[in-house]
Structures are given as structure tokens and as C-alpha cells.
Amino acid sequence: MRLTLSFSTCLLSLAAASPAGSLAREPKGHEWIPKLPGQSRSPCPGLNVMANHGYLPRSGKNIDLAAVRYGVANAYNYAPTTFDSAFQMAVDFNLTTTGNASTFNLADLAAHDKVEFDGSLSRNDHYFGDDNSFNPFIWATVAKRLGLYDIQRSQKDKYVTVEVAAKARAARVKDAKRVNPEFNASANEVTGSPGTTALYLVTLWDEKADAAPKSWIKSFFEQERIPYLEGYASSLGTQKTNLTIGAMFQRVSAVEV
Ligand code: HEM
Ligand SMILES: *[C@@H]1O[C@H](CO)[C@@H](O)[C@H](O)[C@H]1NC(C)=O
Ligand SMILES: *[C@@H]1O[C@H](CO)[C@@H](O)[C@H](O)[C@H]1NC(C)=O
Ligand SMILES: *[C@@H]1O[C@H](CO)[C@@H](O)[C@H](O)[C@H]1NC(C)=O
Ligand SMILES: *[C@@H]1O[C@H](CO)[C@@H](O)[C@H](O)[C@H]1NC(C)=O
């Protein structure tokens, strides 16, 4: 509690110092507070980001279906039931350590070859040890291919297109296959890899640009922060559903890689 309070105070003084008090655009009660000791986080940036903003319990523990429904609707403007089947998948794998089959702790999701698979964009493979935490070295290879740090000369340079994202994903999987002698090209990996690329694109989509802003992708993966400060608002686009994700999955899969 004490820690949390001093953290918020720190963020508030930052806001006061920043031009136009830009941090004030974080919705009240949903300020970004990254993981504190004792809290649980997952290999999934989408869930961690929500916990870091209090759209899921900040503890990351005892996550139930109602919490996921609330989070995805309020943080990202998905129809509340969009992730019901993802939640159910976690339940069906019996990976929970909470003692309640209807809930899990975020770190439970790192169990290998259950929901978690090889060739992630921002995590290392289980073979190398930690498949749960953000891995800056793995991510750097992907970020480079997404052009996240390229000099942005034109408006066009500020966005990641479906084509660029699909190629970066395929290249990351190719790298992982080359170095991991136990790479598991499971059915889950084969669909999950383009599936999670579709997920971050849909979540961070700028409908007018038909692409995702690089600054939003950086914030989401590197800080596990909702890019409010970079202009994101959950109300910007139209409500997303599993159909939106399905359509993006098709677009990602259609790219020749
Ligand atoms: C109950 C709902 C969810 C569950 C159980 C879940 C679980 C997971 C798991 C276990 C992974 C690791 C897969 C891997 O090994 O690469 C993952 C990755 C990922 N998830 Fe989720 N997730 C959920 C919801 C979401 C949401 C709402 C978003 C987006 C807003 C999201 C975006 C992603 C992305 C982009 C990755 C890929 C990360 C990477 O490759 O580095 N997920 N998710
Ligand atoms: C999970 O547990 C249930 C009930 O004990 C069992 O029927 C099911 O086969 C288990 N699933 C997996 C993937 O181990
Ligand atoms: C298990 O979790 C569910 C969902 O939060 C809750 O409704 C139920 O009461 C919990 N069961 C026990 C035994 O605590
Ligand atoms: C690959 O993963 C699947 C589950 O996704 C699992 O059933 C299978 O045993 C794994 N294969 C190896 C060789 O570990
Ligand atoms: C989308 O969700 C609806 C309602 O929850 C469900 O009936 C449908 O099968 C889902 N479609 C896909 C492609 O997952």
C-alpha cells in the first residue's frame, strides 16, 4: 500500500512537470504502475498491460472470467466475451496454482506447451529458461524488423503495416527454429504465432491509417503500458470482436513470407 502510494505520488509529480500534463490522460484509477514485488505477470503482454493499469487485479492473481471480460472491454474496447474461449483454454489445461479451477495467476500461463508456445515475439523459448518475462534481446530482433527505431521522415514511417508485422513474425519463428533444438511446431504454435500478431495489431489499430502506430507498439511491449500518452484511447475506434480478430488473422496469414 505504502509502495503503491509513493509510486502514484511520483507519477503525479512527473505529470506536473511534463508539457500539457500529458499523463493526466490516463483514466483515473487506471494509472500505469508496473509490476511490484509479489505480483504475478504472464508471457502475455495483453494481460500484463491490463494488470499494470488496474483493468485486471494489479496483483495478477486469482484472475477469473468476469475480470477478463471487464478488462478487455474497458482497456481495449473489445466486446466483453471476446476472450472467453482463450480464458477457457487456460482453464482446460489445468495450469492453475490458485486452488480454484475457475481462476489462475498470470504466471501460471507460462506453463510450456499448454497455452504458451515457442517462437514468441518478446519472450525467449522455454528451452532457454525463462519463457515468461519480456526479453529485450529477443524483442530487439523483432523491433528492428518492425522498423520501430527507424528515423520517421514521413507520416507513413510512423506505422507498422500488416505486411511488415507478418514478415517480422515469420522471421522470428525462423530464428527460434534455428537456435532451439526442441522447438515445438505444435498446432498451437502454428496458429498461435500469427494469432498473437493479429491480436496486437487489432488491439493497437489505427483505423484511418490501416496500420498500428510504432509508438503504441513500443509502449505495449516494452513497458507493458497502454499508450494513452501517445494518443491511444479505447474509445477511438469501433468495438472489436472475435470477428475483428479473425479478419486480421486472415490478413496476417495471407502475407507471403
Ligand atoms: C484470457 C485471455 C488471454 C489469455 C489466457 C492469454 C494468454 C497468452 C499466453 C499464454 C501467451 C504466450 C504465448 C506465447 O508463448 O507466445 C500470450 C501471448 C500474447 N498475448 Fe495473450 N492471452 C489473453 C488475452 C490477450 C489479450 C486481450 C491480448 C491483447 C490485447 C493478448 C495479446 C497477446 C500477444 C500480442 C501475445 C504475443 C506475445 C509475444 O509473442 O511475445 N492476449 N497470451
Ligand atoms: C484437466 O483435469 C480434468 C479433470 O481432472 C481432466 O478430465 C482433464 O483431462 C485435464 N486436462 C488436461 C489437459 O490435463
Ligand atoms: C472460485 O472462483 C470463482 C470465480 O471467481 C468463484 O465464483 C468461486 O466462488 C470460487 N470458489 C471458491 C471455492 O472459492
Ligand atoms: C508439443 O506441444 C504439444 C502441445 O501443444 C504437446 O502435446 C507435445 O507433446 C509437444 N511435443 C514435444 C516434442 O514436446
Ligand atoms: C465469436 O463469438 C461468438 C459469440 O461469443 C461465437 O458464437 C462464435 O463462434 C465466435 N467466432 C469465432 C470465429 O471464434
From TrEMBL:
Keywords attached to this entry:
Heme, Iron, Metal-binding, Oxidoreductase, Peroxidase, Signal
Domain Heme haloperoxidase family profile, by residue range, is 28-247
Listed Gene3D superfamilies: Chloroperoxidase-like
Signal peptide residues on this chain, from the entry's feature table: 1-24
- The protein's required cofactors: heme b
Q: Does the keyword Signal apply?
A: yes
Q: Which domain of life is it from?
A: Eukaryota
> What does the sequence similarity comment in the record state about its family?
Belongs to the chloroperoxidase family.
User: Can you name this protein?
Assistant: Cloroperoxidase
